[in-house]
Every structure is written in structure tokens, then in C-alpha cells.
Amino acid sequence: MRIFDTTLRDGEQMPGVALSPGEKLQIALALDEAGVDMIEAGFAAVSRDEKMAIRQISKEVSTAKVVSLARMSKADVDAALDADVDMVHVFIATSDIHLKYKLGISREEALRRIEEVVSYAKSHGVEVLFSAEDATRSDLEFLVEAYRRAVEAGADEINVPDTVGVMTPSRMAYLVRYLKERLPPVPMHVHCHDDFGMAVANTVTAIENGADVAQVVVNNFGERAGNAALEEVVAAVHYLLGLRTNVKLEKLYGLSQLVSKLFGVPVPPNKAVVGENAFSHEAGIHVHGVLNNPFTYEPMRPEDVGNRRRIVLGKHSGRHSVAWALKNMGVEPSDALVDYVLDAVKELAVRKVRVDEVVLRELVNRYNRGVSATHAV
């Protein structure tokens, strides 16, 4: 299956985020290196600078297809074409609430615009992706008609956006099957938002039920609660579904760190796959298991996704954790030393003191000074 990354478009729409053209290019090249199939580089009609940034990305990216978003208007399509993209992603809302309160048009007018603009874009020799915005809150019969008109007008691929994140996996499975049974066999994307924390689950379910392309954002950044996370979807597809993408899994952690830095938004420590705690272990029974066989408490190898294992010392640590940490520092973990350090670590943890290597080494030195003083007496 294929991966369509929209970090540079939907991700950048995250409140408070604004990337320079150079930063957009840096992320685009990292995405290309990581192996995503399509990069939505932005929305060319937004500004002259945005169009120039997309054009630069189109020039520099070597493998992935470069995409620009466009509203259902010829002017937007022209702006995307002027950015030299491989694919134009045209969209129009199909839900009644959007048609009435946002666009102020009828269903018939929406269908007319789809036919006119999709055929216009296709006539310029680019690939065309059609999105029915707010698809998951649209009347199903009208939704099918909108997609059918788009395909007949020349759309190469279609996208099913869960624009406000209202789907559940069972409903997503039904929708994908419903559309697949009624539409021509063109590739189907899914684009899930995380308003109820379901974006990754809905995306994975859609893939299980026949969707061909997952639209994702690094670190699940994006508007409101964000989008389906690239790293989580790719890992789930590989490890849970047994499918394959072109993404190099070992690039996931580095990609996450780069986007976090340039967006100015930290990655939560408990973030799946790429968080600092994703492969961290503190509880004694967990550490004991992991040190004997990592798969006792890890569903995948951290190095396979570019992350690393961390044994953390704290309130829930046991002797195995302390012994492992001391060995890693080159200190022989005698029983007495382990007991001393373990007691000290638990006391420090309650006082909210983070036990890093500096603190641990000081504990070892303190223990050694006590032993020397005892011997002197």
C-alpha cells in the first residue's frame, strides 16, 4: 500500500505553526528519503511564497510525487500547475452542512463544479486526486454520485476524508466497502482526523477493508487534534497487518524529531513508536522480562523504527534495572551497591528528582566513600 504525507499542508495548518520555504524543503527531502509515495507540499493558491516553496520542492524531490491542494476552482488549479506538481488534489465539500453553511450552494452546483474543474485539471496532463470534504457526514448516495462524476471527469484517484474525526472503525469499514462496491476501481485514499482519538484506528481499518492509500502527518500534527500519525500507521501496517509500504521504518524516529524541531512542537514522551517512553521500562518485572527477551514487553524492536530502548530508574524500579544501569556505566553491581542505589533511587523519585547517569554516578561515589570510611575505622 502507499503512503500520502500531508505534513507540509494539513500538518502546517496546526495553530501557531508557520514554516519557511527552506524548512518546508528540508522536511520534504526527509520525507522523500524516508520513502513516502506522495508529498502534499502545500496549497499553491495561498500565496506567492507558498507556490514558490512547492515549486522548489517539486524540483528537488527525486522519488515521491509532489502534490498541491486546490479548491474546486480553475484559478486554484492554475496555481498548482504553475508550481510544477505531479498531482493536483482538488476538493469540495459534499456534506449538507458544509454545502449550506460554508459554500452556500446546492448539491447540483457541487456536482457541476466537480465535472468542470476535474476535467480542466486533467486536460493539463497532471494526475488528479479528488476529495469529497466531510465525506463521512455526507449522504451516502450523493457521496457516491460525487465520486462517480469526478472519476468520469478524469480523476485518477479519490480520497475519503473524515474531516472532523467522527468515524469509528466499524463505521469506517462499512463506508469503505460501501464505496468500493459502487465505484469504478480507482485507488482510494483515506484521510482521518483525530478529534476522538480514532484517526490511526480508522485509517488501519480502512486499509484492512480495501483502501489503497493512507494520508498521514508526522507526529499526528495538524488542525485541532491532528491527523493520523505517519509513524503509527506505517508501523501498524507492517507489524499488525503484515502489509508493506515503501517507507524505511528505521527513518521514522529521525523524521519525527526533525518535524518536531521545525514545527516547534515537542513530541509527547508517551507517543507511540517515536516517543522517548515508547521503549522505556521502569517497573522491575518489566525490566526483568525485557532484559531476558525484549519481546516480553515490546511488540517490535526499537532499532527497527530508529528508536532505542531505555531502562529508567525510578519509584517502580527493581534490582535488575539498577544492576543493568550500573553495568552500562562500567561499574560492577555488587549486591550491597545495588541495594544502596535502589533505596536511594526510590527516595529521590518520590522527591521528583530525575535519576540520570550523573545522579547515578554520584550515588556510586557516595557509596564508595562510605565503604572507604568504614574500612578506615
Amount of helix: 40-55%
Q: Kindly provide the radius of gyration, computed on alpha-carbon positions and rounded to a whole number of angstroms.
A: 26 Å
Largest sheet: 8 strands, parallel, barrel
Could you say which structural class the secondary elements and strand pairing correspond to?
alpha/beta
How many distinct beta strands? Answer: 10
Number of helices in the DSSP assignment = 15
Using the alpha-carbon principal axes, give the shape: elongated
What is the terminal separation in angstroms? 72 Å
Unreliable runs: none
* Strand content bin: 5-15%
Average per-residue pLDDT, rounded, comes to 94
Order of helices and strands: EHHEHEHEHHEHEHEHEHHEHEHHH
Strand order, main sheet: write it out: 1-2-3-4-5-6-7-8
Concise description?
With 377 residues, this protein is of the alpha/beta class. The protein contains 15 helices and 10 strands.
What are the salient characteristics of this protein?
eight-stranded parallel beta barrel, 377 residues, 48% helix, alpha/beta
What does this structure look like?
This protein is of the alpha/beta class and 377 residues long. 48% of the residues lie in helices and 13% in strands. It has 15 helices and ten strands. An eight-stranded parallel beta barrel has the order 1-2-3-4-5-6-7-8, surrounded by eight helices. A two-stranded parallel sheet has the order 9-10. Helix 13 (319-328) packs across helix 14. The protein is elongated and about 85 Å long. The mean pLDDT is 94.
Strand and helix map with partners:
Elements: E1 2-5, H1 7-11, H2 21-34, E2 38-42, H3 48-60, E3 65-71, H4 74-82, E4 87-93, H5 96-103, H6 107-122, E5 127-133, H7 140-153, E6 157-162, H8 169-182, E7 188-192, H9 199-208, E8 213-216, H10 230-239, H11 252-263, E9 280-281, H12 284-292, E10 310-311, H13 319-328, H14 335-350, H15 357-376
Parallel strand pairs: 1-2, 1-8, 2-3, 3-4, 4-5, 5-6, 6-7, 7-8, 9-10
Helix pairs in contact: 2-3, 2-11, 6-7, 8-9, 9-10, 13-14, 14-15
